[in-house]
UniProtKB/TrEMBL annotation:
SUPFAM superfamilies: S-adenosyl-L-methionine-dependent methyltransferases
The organism of origin for this protein: Haladaptatus paucihalophilus DX253
Protein name in the entry: O-methyltransferase family 3
Entry's Gene Ontology molecular function annotations: O-methyltransferase activity
Pfam family, one: Methyltransf_3
Keyword Disulfide bond included in the entry's annotation: no
Keyword tags: Methyltransferase, S-adenosyl-L-methionine, Transferase
Domain of life the protein comes from: Archaea
Length: 218
């Protein structure tokens, strides 16, 4: 897999983040074999949520709640975060972890396909995280873009790499070529082109973790 940052830079970024609370540290041990966003992105998600004064957050693909936990601390007590997850066991774990942090009262746990669940939730959302099946990103974008509050942000994880997408093909597609792509690679490429060319959003790809695309709604 393409390395997007040198090890020394990764060490630097890690050293610049204060230790997260005990529950998050335990979640990191639990997540050693699970594709969470990781600590660098988690910290950045929390900063973004604070920066936009987030009151409502929607996640496509929550796993056992790691990214949601980073977000939850930035929400006011009457705020809301919607977690979506196919896997019922993971969602149950997410509830347990958020309860331990005292955040479960601001969380809505939705078991099923995020791209269907989003249809049942009205906006506006101040922050959205897209981190589910990669071929589902373009559909998620179509479903969520109108529900993002002006001044809100959409973050898509795996904008650059993951174990299942072709970095070179995504880059070629964004540079105007028409490479052969599998469904996951095409999903990411189409997503990045859609957000780049959307006149209502400003997008920047940030090489943190596996690369995140941050799209700000004007
Ligand atoms: C990369 S993990 C999410 C990690 C999470 N955001 C975190 O940082 O802790 C992706 C998760 O999305 C779930 N998933 C994949 N496609 C989905 C879909 N269409 N709807 C709901 N969940 C989905 C998978 O079961 C998996 O747990």
């Amino acid at each position: 897999m393409t390395e997007i940052l040198p090890d020394e830079t990764k060490r630097f970024l890690r050293a610049a983040i204060a230790d997260p609370d005990e529950t998050l540290q335990e979640m990191e041990e639990r997540g050693e074999d699970f594709p969470t966003v990781g600590r660098d992105v988690g910290q950045f998600l929390r900063v973004l949520a604070y920066a936009v004064d987030a009151e409502r957050i929607f996640e496509f693909g929550s796993g056992f709640g790691y990214s949601a936990y980073w977000f939850a601390e930035a929400l006011p007590e009457d705020g809301e975060i919607v977690l979506t997850e196919f896997d019922d066991d993971e969602l149950r774990e997410a509830r347990d972890y958020l309860e331990r942090g005292g955040f479960a009262d601001r969380a809505v746990f939705e078991n099923g396909d995020a791209n269907e669940i989003v249809e049942r939730h009205d906006g506006p959302f101040d922050v959205v995280l897209i981190d589910h099946n990669k071929d589902g990103y373009p559909e998620a974008w179509d479903a969520i873009r109108e529900k993002v509050a002006p001044g809100g942000v959409v973050i898509a994880d795996n904008a650059m790499v993951s174990g299942i997408q072709d970095f070179d093909a995504i880059l070629a597609a964004m540079e105007g070529e028409d490479p052969e792509m599998d469904a996951e690679t095409r999903g990411i490429a189409e997503y990045l082109l859609a957000v780049r060319d959307d006149p209502d959003f400003e997008t920047s790809v940030v090489p943190l973790g596996e690369g995140i695309a941050v799209s700000y709604r004007r």
